[in-house]
Amino acid sequence: MTDQPIQNCGKCGLCLSVCPVYQVLKQEQASPRARLQLIKAFEKKDLSASPMLKDLVSQCLMCGACKVACPSGINHYAKFMDMREQLAKSRPDPPAIRSLIYLLAKEYRLHMGAGLARIGRRLTPAAVEKKYKIGAIPVSRFPEMNRRPFRSTLPRVSPAKGSPGGHSRGNPIGHSTGNPRGRVIYFTGCATNYMFAETGQATVNILTRLGYEVVIPDGQTCCGIPMMFHGARNQAVENMAVNLTAIQGAMREKDDDTLENTRDAAAENCDAVDEAYDAATKNCNAVIVDCTTCGAALKDEYPELMNTPAGSRHAALIQKINPGMPETIAAKTRDILSFLHDHIDDLAAAMKPDTPAHKVIYHAPCHSKNSFNSLPKILDLLKALPCFDYIPVSDAAACCGGGGTFFYEYPDISQKMMAKKLASARAAGADYWLTDCPVCRINLHGSLSEKDNLNVAHPVTLISKGLGE
Amino acid sequence: MISQDVKDQFTAIVDPTRWLDKKEQLTCYAYDAFVEESMPDAVIFPETTREVSQILALASAHKIPVTGRGAGTSVCGAPVPLHHGLVICFSKMDRIIEINTRDRYIIVEPGVVNADVQAALAPYGFFFPPDPGSMNSATIGGNIAQNAGGPRCLKYGVTLDYILSLEVVLASGKVITFGSKNIKDVTGYKLAALFCGSEGTLGLVTKATLKVVPLPETVKTIMATFKDLDDTAKAVTDIIGSGILPAAMELMDKLTLNAIEDKAGLGLDREAAGTLLIEVDGVAEACDKQIKQISEKLVANNAVNIQEAGSAADRERLWTARRSAYGVFAKLAPDIISEDVTVPVSRVPEMVRRIIQIADKHNLRVGVLAHAGDGNMHPMIPADKSNTEEWSRVVAAFDDIFQAAADLDGTLSGEHGIGLAKSKYLHLVMNQDTIEFMKTIKQAVDPDGILNPGKFV
Fold first, then answer.
1. What is the mean pLDDT of chain B?
2. DSSP letter at A106?
3. Which among A172, A363, B87, B356 counts the fewest CB atoms within 10 Å?
4. Is A71 in contact with B327 (Cβ distance < 8 A)?
5. Is B329 at the interface with chain A, CB within 8 A?
6. Residue A159 to residues A165, A169, A248, A302, Cα–Cα distance (Å)
7. How near does any CA of chain B get to the CA of A69, in Å?
8. A165 and A27: one domain?
9. Which chain B residues are closer than 8 Å to A53 by Cβ?
10. Is the pLDDT of residue A169 over 90?
11. What whole-number distance in Å separates Cα of residue A191 and Cα of residue A189?
């Protein structure tokens, strides 16, 4: 799966210049090139699955910058994930990480965990909150959990017509008057669902105001990337199958019959399948994500993963997914900000006349840069929309050191990455530090102190406010 | 192996976090961008000249081989510790000590990355001309050790031409400094020429004062394509021979161009047998005039298409693509050998023809890439080292290529260095007395032979 025809590292070292970890540590063993060499040595059995090997392989943000820069076309990302899976077998992650994976693997666990965390925060004395840290971040600077999961706060709309049992149903909310401009599926991700409800509210508000029907599929769960990064491929495949089924269900909303027929036709005629799917997916303009890591999963990982010969454990789950569906979803996956960039004039025109221009700086998350290449579009948005008074900072694209659980596992390295960013952010004199990744957001907010008068938010919240809610 | 007792003495010089000796760690210091690998016994990261001096004195006392390393982007195996021992990695000595554009110099530690020097100078309107393909990762210490070049060295000269002064630690641990902040300085031997390009066999640079030059007011880049590779090479000879001096003049054959295009997707002409990427710089009027003169020569040599890069961003994309040329070849086969034989520019067409004939003779693919304006060829052969039959043909082909270069009054290496790759060919371009003279110098400076042993001297 990971081995494309030829993947040879020419050892040219160009990756050193883009690797945030190498840039901080300035030691070869922290570079993407070294990790490939270590993997090679492990495969040749020159190295065993030692704790140090695990540490050297794990000391990586999985940001994908090396993959983008690599002239030899190496998919570092996939190679590192494979290696992490190998090492996880003999060298399990620490308990805190394993608990996280356990929670993320099932939506009900996550739901319960978020609830408990909320209660826990309520019960924790303020003094303790300030003193204890997760990674380098004081507990008091962690976001509070949503009072209720975001998705459960939205009005439920009954399906238009009867559906065969056993499939997740789309849950359309909001609609425009007159001819709707189109229909989008919104994959909310866990962070929006459990922590940053306002991101979800803003996303739905903007899309609805632009005239889109927004469908939030029932049954969606964690995208699976955290499991992949920690070598828990089985759980990841399960989550991915669940999500693909849920999104597929939402796509099918208007074309159940067509799709049912398609399945029958599938065995006989491939062209018929293609045509039917084209028809079936036409009622979805895009699969929207507000987190580009979830987006990278949908876009880059899902199609590949579904080709993994899964054990019998996943057979039943994978069977529910129609052939070609992962590719269709991948092709339609858009990050919300790039999607809004397509509507930049409409958005500017729709802003309230008295919209205040907030002074903002921006931090580009790794998957926005490396997977969606959205930075130029986001800067366009920030410059064009009247709700922003955009202040450029030279290191907007530098890594903050968040990296999934990296900030927890390697707080020293993470803090060094953050230090420079903090200095330039403080000097900019902005009111908002905008970013479109929940982990960056936790990390940026957590690294600022109460004295800093700098709010960390997703750009959609200010756009939504500008439009009026 | 380094004994526990000696290790304790090293870790008394530097903090133990700057000492690596576990197999997993050492695996990461066994290589550069060349094919040969060899593991060190330990890696040490000094942060000051004093530490380097103490490390070398201790290594000398125990006759431990010492190999210097920056970012490990050499393409000739220079930082590969062939005799194991200690790798001194300079990546943490990365301070820019002084920028003085009034007197036109910059003082840096060896671990500063070339691109960081450029970035630091740019706000002052200055730059440091050497621009090796690895400039975004490669360190100044490595640039000096290898006397690095790059495309724009055609007009501006190579690393050695920009060294005003060096601080060098000798094998004994003694620290010497020579040169000064002056552009003109004939006080004593020109020792910079001895150490620059010595590949860490004579001493280790711990501080460098480099000459910097003002950024040109205008830069223009054109790309010309040809139906015939021979015409492409003749155009190079014709342009340079007529007295025009572009800042850079890069030649790419079809294989190279397609490998680059696969990665970069710039819309390059995949059908062109030869492509020239030419850059001129200076005052705007002079650039326009040069572009006109060059275009005439290109047309006279049957160029089928001449295009000018519109924006600075377009130009940067072209050069980024060019710099990726080494890496893109890794897609073609498990291993790649890239050499950089250099010939007088009038011999470029003949050398290109011979490279292709030699590859054909040995039934190998070859990518012909060249900093053509200064005759610096980069034939690249993708192959599989584990296929011993094929690899023997690769070795035989390079034997022939080096011989051909020597026959055309050329030399073994224009900018990559000798390293592990080419010491056996020295006799083609140097007589025995000359080789002996180099050995005499080496013996005098490093009597125990601890500095980068197993290399060309």
1. 95
2. S
3. B356
4. yes
5. yes
6. 12, 7, 15, 27
7. 9
8. no
9. 24
10. no
11. 6
Delimit the CATH 3.30.465.10 region(s) of chain B.
96-214
Kindly list the strands in the beta sheet with A286-289, ordered across the sheet, starting from the edge strand earlier in the chain: A172-173, A212-215, A182-187, A286-289, A333-335
Contacts 24+ apart (CB under 8 A), A43-52: A46/B27, A47/B23, A47/B24, A47/B27, A49/A86, A49/A87, A49/A89, A49/A90, A49/A91, A50/B24, A51/A91, A52/B22, A52/B24, A52/B25
The pLDDT value given to residue A103: 79
d(CA B339, CA B401): 9
Looking at the 3D structure of chain A, how many domains does it have? 4
Residue B60, chain A, CB below 8 Å: the answer is no
B384 touches A: beta carbon within 8 Å: no
Give yes or no: residues A395 and A448 share one domain.
yes
Say how many C-beta atoms besides its own lie within 10 A of residue A60's C-beta: 25
Structure confidence at residue A23 (pLDDT): 95
Q: Sign (positive/negative) of CA torsion B370, B376, B381, B386? A: negative
User: Is 3.30.70.2740 the CATH classification of the domain at B332-429?
Assistant: yes
Q: Are residues A266 and A309 in the same domain?
A: yes
Sign of CA dihedral B407, B413, B419, B421: negative
Instruction: List the single residue in B27, B263, B331 with the smallest CB-CB distance to A6.
Output: B331
CB contact (8 A) between residue B73 and residue A12: yes
Q: Which residues contact B202 (CB under 8 A, 6 or more apart)?
A: B168, B170, B194, B195, B441, B442, B445, B446, B451
Hey, of A3, A26, A55, which one would you mutate to test binding to chain B, going by the most B CBs within 10 A of its CB? Answer: A26
> Is a pLDDT exceeding 50 seen at residue A4?
no
Please compute the mean of the pLDDT values over residues B329-343 and round it to a whole number.
Answer: 88
Q: List the domain range (segments joined by +) for residue A261.
A: 150-338
Q: Do A17 and B33 touch (CB under 8 A)?
A: no
Closest chain B residue to A19 measured between Cα atoms?
Answer: B137
pLDDT for A284 equals: 87
The whole-angstrom distance between B183's CA and the closest CA on chain A is 32
Interface of A with B (CB under 8 A): 6, 8-17, 26-29, 31, 34, 37-38, 41, 46-47, 50, 52-53, 56, 70-73
Q: How far apart are CA B173 and CA A465, in angstroms?
A: 66
A124 plus A220 within the same structural domain: no
- Residue B78 contacts A, CB cutoff 8 Å: no
Cβ of B330 within 8 Å of Cβ of A56? The answer is: no
Closest Cβ opposite residue B331 in set A13, A38, A72: A72
Which residues of chain B are within 8 Å of residue A37 when distances are taken between CB atoms?
A: 27-28, 30-31
ipTM above 0.85, yes or no: yes
Residues of chain B with CATH 3.30.70.2190: 218-326
Inform me whether the pLDDT recorded for B186 exceeds 80: yes
Half-sphere exposure of B97 (CA within 13 A, CB side): 14
| Residue contact B23–A47, C-beta within 8 A | yes
Residue of B nearest to A34 (CA): B28
Residue A54 contacts by C-beta under 8 Å, 6 or more apart in sequence? A87, A91
- Shared domain for A121 and A180, answered yes or no, is no
Please report the pLDDT score of residue B432 as a whole number: 95
pLDDT the model gives residue A107: 81
- Residue B337 contacts A where some CB pair is shorter than 8 Å: no
What pLDDT band is residue A274 in, cutting at 50, 70 and 90? low
Domain with CATH 3.30.43.10 in chain B: 4-89
Domain with CATH 3.30.70.2740 in chain B: 332-429
Q: Which of A10, A15, A29 sits opposite B28 (nearest CB)?
A: A29
Residue A137: pLDDT band (50, 70, 90) is confident
Residue A258 has pLDDT above 50, yes or no: no
Residue percentage of chain B with pLDDT more than 90: 89
